[in-house]
Amino acid sequence: MWKILILVSIAAVSAEPRAFHGEKVFRVFPQDSSHVEVIKSLAENAKLDFWSPDSPDLVQAGKTADFRAESHVSLDVQALLEQSEIPYEIIIDNLQEALEKQRDSNIRAVHSYEKYNDLDTINAWSANIAAQNPGLVSRSQLGTSYEGRPLYLLKVGKSGTNKRAIFIDCGFHAREWVSPAFCQWFVKEAVNSYGVDSQFTNLLNNLDFYVLPVLNVDGYVYTWTTSRMWRKTRSVNKNTSCIGTDPNRNFNAGWCTVGASNRACDDTYCGATPESERETKALADFIRANVGRIKAYLTVHSYSQMLLFPYSYSYSLARDHTELNNVAKGAVSALTALYGTKYTYGPGGTTIYLAAGGSDDWAYDAGVKYSFTFELRDTGRYGFALPESQIKPTCEETLLAVKYIANHVMNNS
Ligand SMILES: [Zn+2]
């Protein structure tokens, strides 16, 4: 009896997600290389969690950087920034409060397009929307995650032979919750628009959309059950207790040469080998098997309001640079037209920083010409704690950009 009680209480304790009371998110504006060095050493000593850029190694003079500091080091971090005369602001004063406010939807339904849905809810939704729309949506399994979860893939489009396709994935990085919300939104809009909206109907008649609502399913579950700020996969690494690989550093595109870490404890760990992760391998295998048909690859992340295209592993321009730049420009202007949300766009390397092993570069080099990375809202006011009330406008504006790209692909590929 006592044993049972003890087991139950342990389970109850471990089921409680980690809290972020008193943790702050700082935005720093390093002016020169000495500021950059101070931030890098601070990152090491105070175990800062970098939100943007993805790692302290990528901090540059003249560019802002956002990071989370745990409560016990927050005051020291602030004091050191003052002492070193590094301009900064505190963008989130109490992360726990921001995370509680993030769930600001009053919708009671289990699944909603305007709420953050957990993985079980997303999986039930995808089964249901396929069952309800047999002529338009079908569900298959792309693969299985490290922890054994199915990776469900939706195919959205009117049946036809030799159709060209666009691949869209969400949920690479576990804590970027608005990303899976967009993939769900996209499928809903496709279903509701077919036969009603002539432009979307035309797209669905001519193209298939493969939609992967959550790639990093293990990480996503972990952000719900254990730690909201988790980013990587959940695979076990050799010779260390540090868990996980950055799935967007794990592709065979300049793998681990720049902007990625070979240390398993880092958030941008590139993995033991390219495609070491079951999730990235499943995605790459699918694209390789269908590369003649897949004309566009869109991968959805957050945050920073950017639309990026190859290359990120080098500064050299893509063979199709001019066209990709024009498509990005058109997509961004369609997006901005709705709510005035400002986006920047361009090749990843020059627009943000060099980062090797990304899925967009890999897909492009594999032969998928229209390869883009979205970084959705916002620019750091909420960061990964984007309130649910922003899901709808974020998805509405993003859909306009995706439709712009899809139209270009339909007419030019
Ligand atoms: Zn990301």
TrEMBL record:
Cofactor(s) annotated in UniProt: Zn(2+)
A Pfam match: Propep_M14
SUPFAM superfamilies hit by this protein: Protease propeptides/inhibitors (SSF54897), Zn-dependent exopeptidases (SSF53187)
Enzyme class: hydrolase
Domain Peptidase M14: 115-409
CDD domains according to UniProt: M14_CPB
InterPro entries hit by this protein: CARBOXYPEPT_ZN_2, CPB_M14_CPD, M14A-like_propep, M14A_act_pep, Peptidase_M14
Domain of life: Eukaryota
GO CC term, one of those recorded: extracellular space
Intracellular or extracellular location(s): Secreted; Zymogen granule lumen
Catalysed reaction equations from the record: Preferential release of a C-terminal lysine or arginine amino acid
One function term, GO molecular function aspect: zinc ion binding
SMART domains for this protein: Zn_pept
A Gene Ontology BP annotation from the UniProt entry: proteolysis
Keywords, alphabetical: Carboxypeptidase, Cytoplasmic vesicle, Disulfide bond, Hydrolase, Metal-binding, Metalloprotease, Protease, Secreted, Signal, Zinc, Zymogen
Active-site residue list: E375 (proton donor/acceptor)
Signal peptide stretch: 1-15
UniProt-listed Enzyme Commission number(s): 3.4.17.2
Family: Belongs to the peptidase M14 family.
Name of the protein: Carboxypeptidase B
Source organism of the structure: Engystomops pustulosus (Tungara frog)
Lineage: Eukaryota, Metazoa, Chordata, Craniata, Vertebrata
